[in-house]
Design goal:
A: MetI-like fold; 2 domains; 11 helices; B: mainly alpha
């Protein structure tokens, strides 16, 4: 009796932390978030609303503000699906297969993060401005990119490029490939495997990431 | 010659990799190559002169050291936050979970101004440190604070889903074989979240290197001490020195590529070791 009681106790210890550790971890996590996130965010709202709701409301009714918001949403509406398709393809190739040059490919996917948004803008100007590269061709076909919507969409795609792929890769790696292999060995077709097995597995990863890209 | 790809029964490799490479070339490689070509107009001598200027070297050191420190900080505490959010329940957990993403949503300049205000010697947080003669805003420490804020979601958001995916059965099996809680963490849980942690670290690091908007407000921007490399790029742009600006951008790009490749290689290497 006493030995079985003890073993239950032991199991509890090995699958859960003690109360003290739990408390310490929660305290550490929350104070870290408070110091770097909570207080700054509070200060932002404090400043934004400090001058009263009226001023805030006035800023929102400015047509310039609305067209800016609209433009941001349009850019996101194009960039997110484009990067979503890329993200799933890249994650599938990288997480489930072994091939040479994988870490180089991964690093290239990360690279847009290290580029300052400033430099991305500069690159866009370099690529599409009148004298360089695609400039003459674009002018011939009367397409305007710089200081127009397509330019903004392009830069948005570039800047958010790694988000979805990089989110999915560790998730798909951790899930292993047994499920997909089972599906294939049960003679499921390629797309069937994708819709029935892969998508349900990564669906949450996709949803979490989408809302702030 | 060794095979390019290990055998696998799974379909879709060619399609997935082909599409990945096409998209990568269009969106990343071709645009970035324009940096090379613009810099090439300087010639080797001109490039070397810009890249090894004392002020440029100092700013590069500040950028990479501060980014690294912030990424380490985020890796440690981000892991704790992810752990707490996945494993424990406490009042306000959903709110905290939603807050983690906000550094992505907030314009970086707003973040920078707010952080500078808070961590200044007379700010809400800064004055506690000022009592102990520690200055945070307008010093390199301030840069680390801003970069920590910017990179905070990365580690949490990459570790979280993987940690949630760790199966309780494995932990129970380890426990029933007599492992202590610390052993279970070290030998069972940590190895499975380690790739995600490294990914989060790499992303936070990468994001910090390019960060501009939030840092300039809190850094003080003193040459040789707290001036970051992107600021020098802006300075060059303002003088219409496009080739000089791309030269600095190119140096940053090459260093970042080498460092990220090392981090990603580390992950790949540890995977290989695990399989053996």
């Amino acid at each position: 009796m006493s030995s079985s009681h003890q073993s239950i106790n032991n199991r509890k210890i090995a699958t859960h932390e003690s109360k003290a550790v739990t408390l310490v971890l929660i305290t550490v996590a929350l104070s870290y978030l408070l110091l770097f996130l909570g207080i700054p965010l509070f200060a932002v709202f404090y400043e934004a609303l400090g001058k009263g709701w009226a001023l805030y409301w006035a800023a929102l009714q400015d047509p310039d503000a609305w067209s800016a918001i609209e433009l941001t949403l349009i850019a996101a509406a194009i960039a997110v699906p484009a990067n979503l398709v890329f993200g799933v393809a890249a994650a599938w190739a990288i997480a489930k297969f072994e091939f040479r040059g994988k870490s180089v490919l991964l690093t290239l996917i990360d690279l847009p993060y290290t580029v300052s948004p400033l430099v991305s803008g500069l690159i866009c100007v370099l690529l599409f401005s009148a004298q360089d590269w695609f400039g003459p061709w674009l002018r011939k076909h009367d397409i305007k990119l710089i200081s127009a919507v397509p330019g903004i969409v392009l830069v948005t795609i570039f800047v958010t490029f790694p988000f979805i792929a990089r989110k999915l890769i560790p998730l798909m790696q951790a899930q292993g490939k047994e499920e997909e292999e089972t599906a294939v060995s049960l003679s499921a077709f390629g797309w069937q495997t994708f819709w029935r097995v892969i998508l349900p597995n990564i669906k949450w990863g996709l949803l979490v990431w989408r809302d702030f890209v | 010659m060794a095979q390019f790809k290990a055998h696998s029964v799974l379909p879709g490799f060619n399609l997935a990799l082909g599409f990945t490479l096409l998209y990568l070339s269009l969106i990343v490689l071709i645009p970035l190559s324009s940096l090379f070509f613009k810099t090439a107009t300087l010639g080797w001598g001109g490039f070397w002169e810009v890249a090894t200027g004392e002020r440029v070297l100092a700013s590069l050191r500040v950028t990479f050291v501060a980014s690294f420190a912030a990424a380490v900080l985020n890796a440690i505490f981000g892991l704790v936050v992810a752990w707490v959010l996945v494993r424990y329940s406490f009042p306000g957990k959903r709110l905290v979970d939603a807050l983690v993403d906000l550094p992505f949503a907030l314009p970086t300049a707003v973040a920078g101004i707010t952080l500078a205000m808070l961590y200044a010697p007379n700010g809400w947080i800064g004055h506690y440190f000022a009592e102990h003669d520690i200055k945070i805003a307008y010093t390199p420490l301030g840069i680390v604070v801003a970069l920590t804020f910017i990179g905070l979601p990365f580690v949490v958001r990459t570790v979280q889903p993987v940690l949630a995916d760790v199966e309780a059965e494995i932990e129970e099996a380890a426990a029933s074989l007599g492992a202590s809680r610390w052993d279970v963490f070290r030998r069972v849980i940590f190895p499975s979240i380690y790739p995600a942690l490294l990914t989060g670290f790499a992303l936070a690091f990468a994001r910090s290197i390019g960060e501009y908007g939030s840092v300039i407000f809190i850094a003080g921007n003193m040459p040789f001490i707290s001036e970051i490399a992107p600021l020098l790029i802006v300075a060059k742009l303002e003088q219409y020195d496009y080739a000089g600006a791309t030269a600095i951008a190119l140096v940053m790009l090459i260093i970042s590529f080498a460092l990220l490749l090392a981090i990603n290689g580390l992950q790949w290497w540890s995977n290989c070791r695990e399989i053996k």
